[in-house]
Design a protein that fits this description.
alpha/beta, Peroxisomal Thiolase, Chain A, domain 1, 2 domains, binds acetyl coenzyme *A
């Protein structure tokens, strides 16, 4: 039996020029490097400066992913951008990136699932590719949450950073055997809107007419995160027959080292298989997983044939997993 799978052809990322360390933040709000590192594992984050926006960072990540794939935008038929911080209310960041890539065919659209956006984007792309309607899709995760942070709120401003990551997926014929096929093997997306107020912005176009600022009940997020993460990963195991022992890499959303370690521990994933970049990037929302993928791939850790588990949880609440063979 031959089936179509969505195979990763290339990966790329982009970060703003400016690094902001914990020490620098401690000069502005009542916090310390020790507190931030102990509670979150974050040591620094990149913050977008003048002229750096979600579309400029997303474009750079897209160009890097296309270069890595050995392709140009002429080879794509769809662009999906996961972001909560678009340059403008409309047009979408995806169509802006499409234009700057010089792509006048196909289609481009944004999706919004906050920190789970990239895994939602991979899920949507996989449906288009495996249905046979599209052949190559660029999925970008990008956020500039620094633009909606209250920089006087020490409970949130220390957690987030800006960045972008992208992958190119191509529909390829595979044997239909999860044990040997390359590409996306299973995806699982979930949400429960009852938790919305626990992690949200205080405004929006249809209410305040402003973007608002990010607010969060940190303890509540933490309380739900590990259970939700392990749920969707268990779903991926049930769909494929794999267990934590079979994984080569666990690439979780980079919110917080303690959430990552607790989830890996609960699932029995060995620490050396866990990709952690939150120390360098902070929580970059939809960008965090493709940034972590690009980092681990760039360091030669993730290789062709490796079994890779992606997982995210964020505002909504939304949560999702995608299991793929690189
Ligand atoms: N520096 C110093 N002290 C601080 C800071 C700070 N930046 N922030 C809060 N504190 C203080 C609090 O005021 C409190 O002081 P008090 O005891 O005098 O009242 C004390 O530290 C403890 O505060 P808690 O909120 O109880 O701290 P906690 O141990 O819960 O850690 C944290 C807070 C890191 C936010 C934790 O709840 C957490 O990791 N939650 C998950 C949130 C998260 O990762 N969100 C990301 C977005 S969601 C996602 O991407 C999945």
């Amino acid at each position: 039996m031959t089936i179509k799978r969505s195979v990763v052809l290339g990966v790329g990322s982009a970060l703003p020029a400016r690094v902001v360390t914990n020490e620098e933040l401690a000069k502005k709000v009542d916090t310390s490097d020790e507190w931030i590192v102990q509670r979150t594992g974050i040591r620094q984050r990149y913050i977008a400066g003048e002229g750096e926006t979600s579309s400029t960072l997303g474009l750079k990540a897209a160009e890097a992913a296309l270069k890595d794939a050995g392709l140009t935008s002429a080879d794509l038929d769809l662009i999906i951008v996961a972001t909560t911080t678009p340059d403008l209310t409309f047009p979408s960041t995806a169509t802006q990136i499409q234009a700057r890539l010089g792509m006048t065919h196909g289609a481009a659209f944004d999706i919004q699932a906050v920190c789970s956006g990239f895994v939602y984007g991979v899920t949507i792309a996989d449906k288009f590719l495996t249905s046979g309607s599209h052949n190559r899709i660029l999925v970008i995760g990008v956020d500039t949450l620094s633009r909606i942070i209250d920089w006087n709120d020490r409970t949130t401003c220390v957690l987030f950073g800006d960045g972008a990551g992208a992958i190119v997926l191509e529909a390829q014929n595979q044997k239909g055997d999860v044990n040997t096929d390359r590409g996306v093997l299973t995806t699982h997306i979930r949400s429960d809107g009852r938790h919305g107020p626990k992690l949200c912005a205080t405004g929006g176009p249809s209410t305040t007419g402003t973007s608002g600022v990010l607010t969060m009940e940190g303890k509540e997020v933490f309380k739900h995160a590990v259970g939700m993460i392990t749920d969707v990963i268990t779903d991926a195991y049930a769909a494929t027959g794999f267990t934590s022992d079979d994984l080569d890499w666990f690439v979780p959303h980079q919110a917080n080292k303690r959430i990552i370690n607790s989830s890996a521990d609960k699932l029995g994933i060995a620490p050396e298989k866990v990709v952690i970049t939150v120390d360098r990037h902070g929580n970059t929302s939809a960008a965090s997983i493709p940034l972590a993928l690009a980092t681990a791939y760039g360091e030669g850790r993730i290789k062709k044939g490796d079994l890779v588990m992606l997982e995210a949880m964020g505002g909504g609440f939304t949560w999702a997993s995608a299991l793929l063979r690189w």
